[in-house]
Structure formats: C-alpha cells, structure tokens
Amino acid sequence: MKIKSLSIYGYGKFTGFEWNTIGSLQVVYGHNEAGKSTIMSFIHSILFGFPSRQSSQLRYEPKYSHAYGGRIVIETETDGEVVIERMKGKAGGEVQVQFEDGTMGGEERLIPLLSGMNKTLYQNLFSFDLKGIQEVQRLKGTEIGRYLLAAGTFGTDQLLSVEEDLKKESEQLFKPNGRKPKLNQLLQQLKESEQELKKAKQQNSEYESLLLQKDRLDQKRIKLENELKEKTAKLQKATTVLEKWSILQEDHRIEQRLEELGWVDFPVDGLKRYEKYLDKQILLRNQIESVVRKLEKTKQIRAESQPSTAFQPVIHRAEKLIQEWPLFLQNQEDIEESKRKIEENKVRIEEIEQALGLYMMKEKPNLGIAVKEEIRKLRNEQLKIQLQAEDLSKQLQKVSAEYVEIEAQCQSIEENLWSEADFKQLQKDKNEWIRLEELLQEKKNQSQNRQDLHKVKKQNNYIRIGEGLLFFLSLMLFVWSIFTTQWLLGLFTGGICGYLLLSAFLVNKTKKSSDEHLTLQIQELTVELEKRSKDYHPIIVYEEQLELRNEWKRMYQELDQAEQAKRDLLDQEQQINVSLDRNRAKLQTCKESLGLPVDFPHIRLEEAIDLLTEREERQRKLEKLQRSLQEKDDKQMNWLQELEFIASAADYTLGDPSETLFLIKQTLKQEEEKLIRQKEWESKIEELESERQTLESEYKEYNHLLNQLQKKAGTADEESFRAKAKNHEEMCQLHSRQQILQDQLNQSVKEDFSLYASQDELKQEHAQLLMFIKEIERSLKNIRQEATTLDHQIGVLEEGGTYTEKLHRFYQSQSIFQEEAMNWAKVNMAISLLQATMNNYILDRFPKVVKKAKEYFAFLTDGQYPSLYYQENGQLYVERKDGALMEPFELSQGTKEQLYIALRFALVFVIQSNYSFPIMIDDGFVNFDKNRTKKVCTLIQKISEDTQVLLFTCHEHIRELFPSDCIFTLSKNSELSSESDKSHSMI
Question: What's this model's pTM, rounded to 2 decimal places?
Fold first, then answer.
C-alpha cells in the first residue's frame, strides 16, 4: 500500500490543507509546532478511526472550523487507487471508501483493505520514533537482548511486559516454599480447620439428640402459626364487612332503583342546549325588526341627495384640465427659456465661423469619427517621422565618428606588422625552437632515467648481497659434498654456484652499458642547448605577430561594417524626407475638404474638427429648439380652448385662467362629494340587506337545532322533553353515588357481604374467631418457652463450636482455596499460552529477520559488525570484525541503537508480503553523529525502493541528506513550501 495524496478538511491547526504529490520517499521538514505530528496523527486517524473522547490520545479537533476529518488516496496492488474519506460521526467517525471501479463502501470494505490491521499493531510495526530508540538506553544487561528480540519479532516489548506482569501475579498467588503468598496462607488455614473438625466429631451424639427435640417443637410451632394466620385472615374479613355494613346496604338500594329506571337515553346537556336555543331565537327576532327599520330610513336619505346631471359628463375632462395646469405654467416658462437658448446658439455659431475664417460654406463638410481619426494619425505620423529624423541624424554622427576611429586603429596596427617574407622566416625559427624544447624535455627524461637507474642499482646491491650469501653457502655445501662423496648434493649445489656467477656477470655488463649510453646522450643534449641564444624567443614573437594579423583583419571587417551602416543611414534619411513631404500633402488635402483656409496651421486641425463639430451640433439644437417652441405654443392654445368649454358647462364666463380654474375646482369638489355620499348610502343599504338575510338564516338554524334535540330525546313537545330530562338527571346522580361507594369497596368485600343474611349473624361469627385466636396464641407461648430451654442446652455444647459449624468452616475454607487455586491456574495458563505464541513467532519469524538485519547492521556500522547470530536458547549475538562474539549489552550505546533500527527495518521487510504498509518515522536519529546519521538516511533511501517511507524531522542537517525533490517543508504559520519544483498549496 502506498499513500498518494491527502486532503485535510479540518484537523488540528490545518483547515483546507492539500498535499497532492507524496512519493515513495518523503521527508516532511518543519520547525517545532509546524504540524508534523498533526499530519502523522491524521494518517492514523483516517485509516483506523479518530481517538475516542475517553482516550489519552489527542483528538486534534479544529478550533476554527466545523469540518473535522479529511481523505487519503492510497494505491494498492489489487485494487489500484482507493479514496478513504473519514468525517466526524459516531465512535471513530463515519468512513467512506471509493474504489477505482466506482464502487463504494464503509468500514466493512476498509477492514479487508487494511488486511485486518489495527492502529496499535500498525504503530508497533510500521511507526517508530525517538522513544523506542531511547528505550535501549534505559535497559541494562540481558534486558537489552530481550528488548531487541521483541523489537525484531513483534515490533514492541509490550508482550514481554505482559509476560513479566503475569509472572509477578502468579508469584503473589503461590510459591512452592513461600509463606506470604495468598494460596500458601489459605492452605495453612485449611489444615488447621481440618484438625478442629476431627475433635468436634467426638461430641456430636448428645448434640444431635437436642437438635431432634428442637426440630419437633419447630414443626408444631409452624403448624399453630399457620392456623393462627388462617383464623386472623377470616377475622379481618368479618371486621371489614362489619365496619362497612351501612355503605354496603346503600349500594344495594342504588342498584335496585337503577333497575327500576332502566337506561334513559337523552342528549348530552340536552336541557341546557334547549333553553339556550330558545333564548337565541328571541334575541334574533328583535335584531331582525331593528335592521328592517334602519334599511327603510337609509333608502329615504339616498333619494334626497342626487348629483348634478349637467356637470357629470365633463368631470373627467375637468380633472384632466386641473392636472395640466402646472404643465401650462411650465410650458410658459419653457417657451421663454427656448427663446433665450435660440439666441445663445446663434451667437455661438457666429463666433465659431469667425474663429475658423468660415464666411462662405458651399456644402456640409464630413466631420465623422473616421476623419478626425485620420487627421490624428497623420499628425502622429508627422511627429513620429520628425523624431525618427532627429534620431537618425544622431546615429549618423555617431557612425561617422566610429568610422574615423576604426580607420586610425587599422593604420596603427599596419605600422607594427612584419612583411610577408619576414613572417615566413619567423615561422621557420619557431619550428626550430619547438624542436629545441623537445630536446630539453628529452634531457630531463634522460636525467630522470639515470636517477631511476641509480635507485635500481642501489636495490640490486642488496639483492647481490643475498646472492653472495647464497653463493658462499652453496660453495660450502659443494666442498662438503665432495669430501663426503655425496655426489647428488654436490651436483645440485655446483649448479646453483654456476648460475649465480653467470647471472652476476651479465647484470653488471648490462648496467654498465646502459649507464654509459645515458651519460653520452645527456652530454650531446647539453651541447646542443648551449648553441641556442637565450635573448631571442621566436615562439613568443610569432604569437604576437599572429595576434596582430588577426586583429588587423577584425578591425578591417569592423571598418567595412561601419561604412555599410553609414550608407544605410543616409538611405533611411532620404526615405524619411519623402515620407514627411507625403504627410504634409495629405494634411493639406484634409484642410481643403473641411473648407478651411490654405494658411490654417496644421497643428490646429484637431481643434478645428472639434469647433466644426460643435457648430454642427449647435445648428441642430437651434432647429430643434425652434420646432419645440412651435409645439409648445400650440399646446397652450389648446388648453385655453378646453378651459373655455369646461367653464361654459359649469355656467361660468371665461376670465383670468387662474380664477376660472379655481371656480371649476370648487364645482368639481362638490360633485365628487355627492358621488361619494351616494356610494356610501348604497354600501350601507347593501350591508343592512346582508345583515337581515344573515339574521333570518341564523334564526332558521336555531329552529332546526331545537327540532334535532326533540328527535334525539324521542319527545314531541317541550313538556315531555323536560320530564325526560329530569329522569336522566336522576339516573346520572345515582351512577355517580354508586361510583363513590364502589371506590370505598372492593369485589371481595361485596362477596363477603352476600354471605351473611343479617348483621347479628356477622357479629356472632366475629366473636367466635376472637376466642379461637386467643387459644392458639396461648399454645404458641408454651412452645416458645420449651424451645428457649433447649436452645440454652445446645448453646452450652456450642461454646467451643459445634461439629456442623466447624464442618461448614472447613468447606468454606476449602472453597476459597479452590477459587484462588483456579485463578493461579488461569494466570499460569495465560503465561504458557503467551510463551508458546512468542516462541512460535521467534522460531518462525526472527531467523528471517536476523538474516536481513545482518545486512542492514553491517551497512550501518561500515562493516565493523558483519554478522548476527541467534541461538535456540533465545540469545542474540553480534560478531565483531575481528571475529569476537558479543552480546547486545556489551555494545556501545550508539551501536545498540543501530542494531535496534536494523531489526525494526528487517521486520518490516519480512512481513511486507502480508502487510504492505508505509513506514512512518518521527525524528528517530537525532542522537546519532554525522556519519551514523548519513548511513541511516542512505539505508532509508534504499528501503524506500520497495516500501514507502515518510520521515518527519525538524533538523536541517537530516533534511540536507535527502534529494530536494523528496522534501516537503512546513512552516510555523501553516504556510508550506517545497524545495522541488512541485506545486503545493495550503488554505
């Protein structure tokens, strides 16, 4: 499994955080509180769930965001890319898993995806920090070996801690020769209880006789007590019936009366409703009569006030005329304003014509945007051409000056140049001089050879001394073999002597000839070098002349380029002058088309366009104002004619428009008031008619309700209805009283009441029960006194403890002992199962881990510890480079930490076929020196080729040991950056 990217919606300090490119090796760098631990916890939470509120682990709930959670994109070999998203919810959060083929699921799909891995197991196997490494420092002696064994087998020492705790608990329960453990004490108590039981068994016969007598008395007592309970219960029932005799008799009488009445069917609250409906009918009849009187009076008033028929047809025209009065006044003011503006525009047009010299214009000029734009372009072009001409003039002056300067430099170089014949002779001298330098080098080589020959000669002197000793020894053996007639040894030693003499002769001859030849060559070279002059160096002079010739060629090329540039500038100057003349001609044509004088300045052409445009605009305004003035005059005349017509309809003569309009307003107001009053009387008549109809309808409704009540009661008139209402009320009262009585009685009391014919019979039975109860109580008193005597005799025998009591104590002690023994057996069974499980893991997994850890440990220690060995007795050994075997506690502190890291990485390598998860390391190597840190970082890069590694660190020297494209940097203010070209973002 490999993490490809992650998104944090809200977790700790991060909100809207995106990390889209996570590689196989990723170093997360940041200072303290930058968020490294938060990201590490976020990955654990998304994969395995958020910590619960009761957990000691931090939940990292965001302070400034409602979103809590995020998502991780992982890549697996079987399912491809999978998106795991977890948000705040029940327990560990609501998780959603989306696979590459589009299928989705929840926790049930995530568990098989993670191969059943939980958070604790993942942290033990694939996630480790400085705490686990520093644990090695705390341990001593053989504890270190056990800790490393656990780290390489289970990833943690928790199983070892559990085993130690179980052993301590077992020893607290039982030790074979102990006294303080609980089982040892209980066993001693059990033995003492057994001895007391044997003594009590001898006194048991008398004790059992007394117990039999007491048992017979107890049985008799129980029989009398049961009989007493039975009689007491009967007495209680008789007493209850006697006390409630009057209530029971009343209840009996009510039941008889209810049977006489039978069931009376009557509407609920029928009589009250009947009387209410009658009262409503009387009230409604009075209201109807009042409404009829108001309706007749209103119709009479409406007929007395009618509006005028003469003015009604022109009311709307009068209202319109009154509304147009402000417009009439406004038009009058507008007419005066229009006259003023007409005069103002005429004056301005004359001023523009005088300013432009336009006294006669035969036709209207073209003043469109295109003309103005063309003039602007021509003016800009003219300005641009003038600037180009000035710039060109400056360039021409500069090029001319450069041409003169380059020409002077060429003449200066020509004065120092040799002739062609002298240069060729110089070239020959240079070749001769090169051969001389080769001779000089050869002399140096010969001198070096001579020195090397002297060194070899010196070395050979030692060889010759050895050969001389060998020759002398061989010669002695040869002489001795002759005298002793050992011919085979003599032949062998004689051959050795001859070989040594021949070899010495040939070597001396060769060395002598080589030395003479080297001496002769060195003398010849010395003579040849002395012939050369030391004041003249043809190679240097040749280089100077060659450089001058190249410089002279380059300067002549620059001179040609300067001359060509000067000609080009002159051509450009001529083209600019032609463009300037053409531009001026176009501007003159524009002035003619606008009707401007010939001597009108070019610079004022754009201003002239603006003035001509203004003149045309004012001419149009002038025409528009004249048309508007005529229209307003017509409107004023039409309004005055309409005023005259309305005034005649209202019987007024036309005078001053304002006075006439005032009189029309008063008439209009009076007529409108009449119309309003007519509408009010009409509305009131309609309301009264509606009220009368409503009241009549309501009266009929109440009459219908009275008929329905009569029908439900089954009566035909009011008298029979009221009689049936009285019977219904009596029945209800009897039922209510009966319910009250029944609340004081129960069914058993009523049943007991039916057993007695009269109250005297009940009193007689009550007296007999009292007499029986007193007799039984007297017998019970005698039995209790006899039982007290027996109890005293039994107590005398039980002063030292009875057999039964001691037997009970013995069985109780035995039960307690068995219970604690079962707990001890459970603890020992757990220890056995735990040890068997650990041994299976150690025998199956740890040898494979040791094999891979051996490779890692040798790399981390630069080959100082090339091998690891694991013995079947559970002991781990380290082989040093010199072959010595050492136990882990004998190693230095740093080496022990390297061994721990090698075992942890080897464990991940061994189990990755079953559990392929990323490794997460939180600053685990800060105590290492520079070389060890570099080694472990190199090992991490090698491991990341097969397994993804996420390293969280705040140390810059660790970050610098990794490639820049693997670094992901966090800053304290949650702004992130990367040393690679990758694009990261944090919101």
Answer: 0.38
